[in-house]
Amino acid sequence: MFERALNSRGVKLRAIHEVLMGASSDELNYIFQTINCAALVEVAWDETMVMLTRPGPRERLAELSIYSRSAAALLTHMHTS
């Protein structure tokens, strides 16, 4: 049962990552403006957090609005604390 629960959690983490990776810029900004960022930090993979909060060729930070970047800054602070 414990193994099944871990597998289920992994499926959910992958789904969160894929949704955030595959969202358009507008969708990603909407997501950041409507979700509980603290909860995202608690459940997301490290790879997901890096993708959302670091500049780079595969990362999404450049696509975020100023409001969403402030949420991303909060995520970065929470993730590294």
Which terms summarize this structure?
5 helices; mainly alpha; 75% helix; 81 residues; single chain
Structure description:
The chain has 81 residues and is mostly helical. It is globular, with a radius of gyration of 13 Å. Helix 1 (2-22) runs parallel beside helix 4 and helix 2 (25-34) packs across helix 5. It is 75% helix and 0% strand. The mean pLDDT is 79. It has one domain.
Judged by helices, strands and strand pairing, the structural class is mainly alpha
- Dominant shape: globular
Q: How many separate helices?
A: 5
Q: Which H/E pattern describes the elements?
A: HHHHH
What is the topological layout?
Layout: H1 2-22, H2 25-34, H3 37-43, H4 46-53, H5 66-80
Helix pairs in contact: 1-4, 2-5, 3-5, 4-5
Quick summary:
The chain has 81 residues and is mainly alpha-helical. The protein has helices at residues 2-22, 25-34, 37-43, 46-53, 66-80. It is built from five helices and no strands.
